[in-house]
Amino acid sequence: MKNSFKVGIAATVAITSAFGLSACGGSADSAGESDSATSGEVSLIAYSGIWQDQYMKAVIEPFEEKYPDIDINFASKRSSAEMLSALQGQKGNPATDVAIMDISVSESGNDQGLFAPMESSEIPNLENVGEDFQNEDGFGPVVMADAIGLLYDKETFPEPPESWDVLWDPAHAGKINVMAPPSLLGLSLTAITSTMEDEDYIQSIDKAVARLQELAPAVQTFAPNPDEYQSVITGQTVLGIGQNARGQYYSDESNGKLGVTFPEEGTVYQMNTINLVQDAPNDAAAKTFIDYALSPGAQSAFAEALFYAPTVTNAELSPEVQERVVPTDGSLNIIPLDVNFLAGARDEWTDIWKREIISQ
Fold it and tell me: Is 301 inside a domain boundary?
């Protein structure tokens, strides 16, 4: 299959959360006999935590008000990789209807036959998805856009750091958090560091590994608990790697203690797709939900709630929110990432981190 997403500026795609999934089961025959577009239950698998809380309020609860005879059953997972594992275990007899996950993971799911193509005749709002966010083979489109950012303590840094090099500044040794691979955050930092070292990460990450080995002794934790954002907010660390959307949310929650910025060397996109499970047991109602999730109202509401950029062309944002979501107009310096390559390299890079970086 062709790299199905043109995603973002200069035909880039993100890996993002990229590596965590989950799902359930059912059968195509039973779905065809009893399924309804306006009633039934839709089983959704997606992210846990603050993402789940805000998506419930901004999208799912309004959907259930509009379609009172459809109930959404939300199965939450911390990562896309967990979602994918669950879906793989239910292949051929799915209990899940819809999955929202990182694009790099959904691409793998498409290749494995876990997801079904969709058509605008059944999901009209597919027509409004920006061309860069559509899947060329008809599989699930990008439903929300984000990017990896540098998290920082605003008391320590009155002005946002301009370069990723700040992570290597001895003044901050022991006050840095990095979520190691297989997390998207660690994988992204690997690609960013490789680019900083004028290295093609597809050919080699030797230079990136050498530079990250220099960073490792300064890292307080490679598994921030409860997460990378609270690590900075509570003062455990002053620098970290995170996602812009959640960073913006937690900046408000911390009364501005946490900041998030995109350093000048560039960053990578994190894109989530919305996917119809192959042989979904509630196929028709699932398509109704996907259509709603791609509506301008739902897209704008979730952007207002958690600062993910909409991917439909007819969504409208307030100026205040527009300034805080990741720009998709070409103004952000984006490092192109090969989704298929990174999906294949994840295990190798994770092993390299364990053996050669974290152990330093």
Answer: yes
Same domain, 88 and 211: no
Query: Within this chain, do residues 133 and 258 fall inside the same structural domain, yes or no?
Result: no
Residue 288 CB contacts under 8 Å (≥ 6 apart), including other chains: 37, 38, 42, 67, 70
Q: Report whether 282 contacts 27 (CB < 8 A).
A: no
Q: 226 and 246 share a domain?
A: yes
Report d(CA 314, CA 146) in Å as an integer. 18
pLDDT value of residue 1: 38
Angle at which helix 103-111 crosses helix 80-89, to 10 degrees, equals: 20
Residues 326-356 have pLDDT tens digits of 998 889 999 998 877 887 888 899 999 999 9
Do 85 and 22 contact (CB within 8 A), yes or no? yes
C-alpha to C-alpha distance for 272 and 311, rounded to whole angstroms:
10
Instruction: Name the residue type at position 95.
Output: A
**Domain residues for 35?**
9-145+270-322
Do β-strands 239-243 and 142-153 pair in parallel, antiparallel, or remain unpaired?
antiparallel
- Whether 4 is in a domain gets the answer no
Strand-pair category, 98-102 with 142-153? unpaired
58 residue type, one letter: A
The residue among 12, 50, 286, 10 whose CA lies nearest residue 142 is 12
In a domain, 3, yes or no: no
Q: Are 232 and 343 members of one domain?
A: yes
Residues 252 and 275 in one domain: no
How does pLDDT run across 230-262, given as a tens digit for each residue?
A: 999 999 999 999 999 999 999 999 999 999 999
The CA-atom distances, in angstroms, between 150 and each of 5, 50, 192, 303, 310 are 26, 19, 12, 20, 22
Tell whether 131 and 22 lie within a shared domain: yes
| 58-110 pLDDT per residue, tens | 999 999 999 999 999 999 998 898 999 999 999 999 999 999 999 988 988 99
In a domain, 29, yes or no: yes
Structurally, the chain folds into a number of domains equal to 2
